[in-house]
Design a protein that fits this description.
about 210 residues, 10 helices, about 75% helix, 2 domains, mainly alpha
C-alpha cells in the first residue's frame, strides 16, 4: 500500500505547475496563452525581459528539477519499496515525470518534462546527466534551438549510462538503463510538434 501511496505522491508532486503559478503571480498572465503555450521554464521566460527573464527561467527550472529529484532520491527511503526493489527510485521518478507531462491540475496537459527528467537522472546517475547537459549546451549554442538541445540531451543519457558501466548496464543497473532510453523516447514525443515544424521548414527551404 505504501508503494502506491508513494507513486501517487510522486505523481502529484510532479504535477505542480510551477510555471503557471509563478508567471501568473509575477506577470498576471496565464503562461498557456503566450508563446508555445507550454507549461515549462522556457515558455514561461517569454513573459519577461532582461534579467527577470533569466531569473524566472532558472527559478522554474530548479523547481521542476526538484519535483523529479525528491521522489527519486528519497521516497524509496521514506516509503516501503515493496516488490519494486532497486527499481523503486526509477518508478517514483517516472511517476513524477508523468505528473509533469500529464498534470492532473491542468486537465492532464503539462510541460515537456526536460527539467523534471533531469532531476530524476541527477538522483540516479549524475555523471550521465552532466554529460547530457554539456551536449545540450553545445547543441543549443550551435543551433540556438532549445528543443534540439533537449533531443540531444535525451539521446546522450542512455549512451553515457551504458558506457560508464557496461558490465552492469543490462544487469544490476538495468532499471536505470531502461529509464534513460525511456526519457529519450519521451523527449522526442513531447517535442514532436517542434520536430514537425523543423522538418516542414527544412522542406520549404529546400523547395525554395
Amino acid at each position: 500500500m505504501t508503494t502506491w501511496i508513494a507513486c501517487a505522491l510522486a505523481y502529484l508532486l510532479g504535477g505542480i505547475p510551477f510555471a503557471l503559478v509563478i508567471v501568473r503571480a509575477l506577470a498576471g498572465v496565464d503562461v498557456r496563452t503566450i508563446g508555445s503555450g507550454n507549461v515549462g521554464a522556457t515558455n514561461a521566460a517569454r513573459a519577461f525581459t532582461g534579467k527577470t527573464k533569466i531569473a524566472v527561467f532558472v527559478l522554474i527550472y530548479v523547481l521542476d528539477f526538484t519535483k523529479g529529484f525528491v521522489p527519486t532520491a528519497w521516497f524509496a527511503t521514506w516509503f516501503a519499496a515493496g516488490t519494486l526493489g532497486n527499481a523503486a527510485p526509477v518508478v517514483f521518478g517516472a511517476c513524477a515525470i508523468v505528473g509533469h507531462v500529464l498534470t492532473p491540475f491542468l486537465h492532464f496537459k503539462g510541460g515537456k518534462g526536460v527539467a523534471t527528467s533531469c532531476g530524476v537522472v541527477a538522483a540516479l546517475d549524475w555523471v550521465a546527466l552532466v554529460a547530457a547537459l554539456l551536449v545540450f549546451l553545445l547543441v543549443f549554442l550551435g543551433t540556438k534551438k532549445v528543443f534540439l538541445g533537449s533531443l540531444a540531451l535525451g539521446l546522450t543519457l542512455p549512451v553515457v549510462a551504458i558506457l560508464q558501466a557496461p558490465g552492469t548496464a543490462f544487469g544490476a543497473r538495468l532499471p536505470v538503463t531502461v529509464f534513460c532510453f525511456a526519457i529519450a523516447a519521451l523527449l522526442f514525443w513531447t517535442h514532436r510538434s517542434n520536430i514537425r515544424k523543423a522538418l516542414a521548414s527544412a522542406r520549404a527551404g529546400g523547395a525554395a
